[in-house]
Amino acid sequence: MYRFLCFLAILSLFSGLEAGCPPYFSRVGPKCYHVSLEKVNWFVADRRCRAMNATLMVFENETDREHTTDLLIKRDVPFNNDWRDAVWIGGNTLGLPREFVLSNDGGALPFTPWLPGEPNSKDEECIDYFRRAEKFGYNDAPCLSLFPFVCQTKALSKV
Question: Mind telling me which PANTHER family this protein's record contains (predicted)?
């Protein structure tokens, strides 16, 4: 029995298991995040998250945004004060006249930390998240742009 428990402990370390999170996800508060540095368009990012029974990341409030941004920095997301160093967010305005909604169910975005001057273009129908002038926030972007992405799911238990 002792060997089996040791095996499970080692396996959890190597598979990225954290309390209440699926493999390869990291826990931040009540959510689990999977950070992918692979650059893909919004549609591919959305499908990849759904394949992991997750959705593209969306912030619930300012505390969620701050803690999640800390995780992204620790996971080497290259936020270099440039729109090309963004990650995809789970919101878009596809099929709607400039009304950004959650991509998973069409509901209202719970928190919208837009960067100053954003959203600013009717041709940019998806949302990314990046740093501009040392401030992090949402930006509208063409859905076919290539960015890393972050998937989220709810944690199964409390820490």
Answer: MANNOSE, PHOSPHOLIPASE, LECTIN RECEPTOR RELATED
Q: Are β-strands 87-92 and 126-132 bridged in parallel, bridged antiparallel, or unpaired? A: antiparallel
Phi/psi for 51 (5° steps) reads -65, -20
Q: What are the backbone dihedrals phi and psi of residue 8, each rounded to the nearest 5 degrees, phi first?
A: -65, -40
Classify domain 15-154 by CATH number: 3.10.100.10
pLDDT digits (tens, 9 = 90+) for 79-112: 987 888 999 999 999 988 889 999 999 999 999 9
Q: How far apart are the first and last CA of the chain?
A: 25
pTM: 0.84
Write phi, then psi, for 114 (nearest 5 degrees).
Answer: -65, 145
The residues near 5 (Cβ < 8 Å, ≥ 6 apart) are none
Number of helical (H) and strand (E) elements in the chain, helices listed first: 3, 8
- The dihedral region occupied by 144, where left means phi > 0, alpha psi between -120 and 50, and beta the remainder, is alpha
Q: Is 27 helix (H, G, I), strand (E, B) or coil?
A: strand
